[in-house]
Design brief:
The protein is of the alpha+beta class. The protein has one domain: Endonuclease/exonuclease/phosphatase (Deoxyribonuclease I, Chain A). Helix content is 23%, strand content 28%. It has a 6-stranded mixed beta sheet with strand order 3-4-2-1-14-13. A 6-stranded mixed beta sheet has the order 5-6-7-8-12-11. A two-stranded antiparallel ribbon has the order 9-10. Helix 3 runs parallel beside helix 5. The radius of gyration is 18 Å and the shape is globular. It starts with a strand and ends with a helix.
Length: 298
């Protein structure tokens, strides 16, 4: 019997798709690409300019995706001008609350929803960790852990701007001599035991340890579902001065929700590369199993 399927997408569309990478006009547009997957939940990064003119661009995207309800962070002078956002299908979910965690560089968009007719709250978070400060990234990752406090059920889509540990990864190993961009090297490395190493702290904070706060859904799909391509690299898809592409775009959930995961897909096509240097990630969920979990009160 084919399960009812819930689809969640997470995508960093470079500068909100305002201009193709090569400067030429292309079809399909980023929103048309995303609409193909008919997502019920969308985690967006780099909603650059989407808040202007009464959030006209934000609402246009949500409408094109089937009438989703959109939320986004704010652009702040002297801070990041690339907000995060969350979009939710009102046919499946009731909105409970929306807040933006206002940290040092970029806000985290946090939306709470309930599956219609169910009592349990699902916390949704879209994050884009600080690109230039590893310590700030670690702080932002720790903030995300609070969403799971008190037994909350959480689903997160994010650009981690940092790396995962190499265990079972399929992307090419990143070596210092491959990174020609010296600024990028400073942004993505930390000091440990007197050595300069690649920054994996956000991944360790969020999904590490014997009792991890969150499940790395790509790894879960690879190890439990046998979907090894879920571990495909997601960025940088175009630049050659930052070394081979790595898996820095993640979808995470609390372990209770992970059991409902059907599949994880990394979408990296020529159409996508015309607009952004990040792959689109898609998770598919057994909606009936999600509903059983959402029927358990918080």
């Amino acid at each position: 019997m084919t399960p009812n399927v819930l689809v969640a997408a997470s995508w960093n569309i470079q500068k909100n798709g305002r201009a193709p990478v090569d400067g030429r006009n292309h079809s399909p547009s980023p929103v048309e690409i995303l609409a193909r997957y008919k997502p019920h939940i969308v985690f967006r990064q780099e909603l650059s300019g989407a808040g202007a003119d009464g959030k006209r661009a934000l609402y246009a995207e949500a409408h094109a995706l089937g009438g989703l309800i959109p939320f986004m962070g704010e652009e702040r002078e002297g801070r990041s001008k690339n907000p995060t956002g969350v979009m939710v299908d009102p046919r499946l979910f009731d909105i409970v609350a929306h807040t933006n965690d206002d940290l040092g560089w970029k806000q985290i968009c946090h939306v709470q929803v309930r599956r219609k007719g169910r009592p349990r709250t699902l916390h949704l978070g879209s994050a884009h960790l600080c690109h230039f400060d590893p310590d700030q990234k670690a702080t932002e990752a720790r903030r995300l852990t609070t969403y799971a406090d008190h037994g909350h059920t959480v689903l997160i889509g994010m650009d981690g701007n940092s790396f995962v540990r190499r265990r079972a990864e399929i992307s090419k190993k990143l070596r210092r001599r491959q990174v020609k961009d010296r600024i990028h090297y400073q942004h993505r490395t930390i000091e440990r035991f007197g050595l300069r190493v690649w920054d994996t702290r956000p991944s360790e904070i969020l999904t590490g340890g014997r009792q991890p706060v969150f499940t790395d859904l790509a790894r879960h799909a690879a190890t439990v579902r046998g979907q090894s391509q879920a571990l495909a690299p997601t960025a940088s898809l175009q630049r050659t001065d930052q070394g081979p592409p790595q898996r820095i775009d993640w979808q995470l959930s609390t372990p209770d929700l992970a059991s409902a995961l059907l599949g994880f897909e990394v979408i990296d096509t020529p159409d996508i590369r015309r607009w952004t240097d990040h792959a689109l990630t898609i998770t598919r969920w057994d909606l009936d199993q999600v509903d059983r979990l959402m029927s358990i009160p918080n």
